[in-house]
Amino acid sequence: MAAKLVPPSMADSHLNPLIFRTMNIPKLQGYVVSSPRSKPYTSSRFAETSFGFRPITITKAAERSSALLGDEALSHCKTALYEAVQGINRGIFGITSAKKSEIDNIVKQLESSSPTPDPTHNLDKMAGCWRLVYSTITILGSKRTKLGLRDFISLDDFFQVIDVAESKAVNVIKFSSKGLSLLNGQLSIEASFKIASSTRVLINYENSTITPDQLMNVFRKNYDVLLSIFNPEGWLDTTYVDDTMRIGRDDKGNIFVLERFQDHNS
Fold first, then answer.
1. Where are the beta strands (DSSP E) in 104-199?
2. Model confidence band, residue 181 (pLDDT cutoffs 50, 70, 90)
3. Whether the Cβ atoms of residue 205 and residue 48 lie closer than 8 Å to each other
4. Confidence band for 228, pLDDT divided at 50, 70 and 90
5. Which among 160, 162, 184, 189 would be 20 to 30 A from 23, CA to CA?
6. What's the chain's Rg over C-alpha atoms?
7. Contact at 8 Å (CB) between 70 and 109?
8. Distance, CA of 258 to CA of 266 (rounded, Å)
9. What share of the chain is helix, strand, coil (3-state, %, to 5)?
10. With the CA atoms of 241, 15, 106 and 81 taken in that order, what torsion angle do they form, in degrees rounded to the nearest 10?
11. What whole-number distance in Å separates Cα of residue 171 and Cα of residue 131?
12. Confidence check: pLDDT of 94 > 60
């Protein structure tokens, strides 16, 4: 029998994932690897993510000063951003202040010239599956130790699948353990959203599931810590979106950079 979870307070919340897509929620599970022998661990009141990076040539486009970037300059900025985040594991375990400043400067360049200035009026632009490339959310110190994310458990891909028709999103955080395949699994969070402005959506957590049971047993003692990190409640501004990249900022001051992901099953 699945245990009921009590969500952490909003004061402990950190992650505010981004939301949108035209798919049925059951189909979204196609992006999730689950064990047929394991029953999912579910919660009905909570919330919500090693990327491989393509070889890229370093570009200094982000250092240019321009009120509005053209297509070529935008492309150079995106290349520079991918180069800047290479090898930092999405920033989830911390980065230097210099690296953070470098990434922030490039992000601001892109935000100043978003080809979709009113993203919530063009939700189809944001529909689909996205993979996290960078976030200012961090898991440091005792939290990382409690969750076993130093040597025991690895934090793998973070996906978000947006369903525009249902005004819902599913966030999937994948985990793995070296030599222990039974601990390879994921935390899945469903959330709903509603439009608040031309750039902003309000996000409401609906439920969460963790599979397999063996993975839940690892996190059970500190499950509230895990969920507090990935709590999606709040608002999110989409500050940049095109066909392949999306950037957002939440009510807690966090930045999220995601790339469109084409699943071979989709």
1. 128-135, 154-163, 168-176, 185-195
2. confident
3. yes
4. confident
5. 184
6. 18
7. no
8. 18
9. 30, 25, 45
10. -80
11. 10
12. yes
Q: Mind giving me the DSSP string for 110-134?
A: HHTT-S-SSGGG-GGGT-EEEEEEE
Q: Helix 71-85 to helix 97-111 angle, to the nearest 10 degrees? A: 160
Could you say which DSSP state residue 40 is in?
P
DSSP string, 218-256: HHGGGHHHHHHHT---EEEEEEEE-SSEEEEEETTS-EE
Buried b (16+ CB within 10 A) or exposed e, 211-231: bbbbbbebbeebbebbbbbbb
d(Cα 167, Cα 20) in Å, to the nearest integer? Answer: 6
Residue 11 corresponds to which tokens in the numbers above?
């004061």
Contact partners, residue 264, CB within 8 Å, separation at least 6: none
CA angle 176, 262, 169 (to 5 degrees): 75
Residues 6+ away with beta carbon under 8 Å from 121: 198
Residue 185 identity (one-letter amino acid)? G
What SS3 class is residue 1? coil
Residues whose CB is less than 8 angstroms from the CB of residue 177 and which lie 6 or more positions away in sequence, other chains included: 152, 153, 154, 183, 184
Stated pTM of the model: 0.73
Tokens standing for residue 168 = 């819902």
Query: What one-letter code names the amino acid at 209?
Result: T
Average pLDDT over residues 97-123: 95
Amino acid at 124: D
Decide: 220 and 212 in contact? Cβ < 8 Å: no
Distance (Å, whole) CA 255 – CA 65: 21
State both tokens at 257.
């950079």
Is-contact 168 19, C-beta < 8 A? yes
Tokens of 26: 């059951």
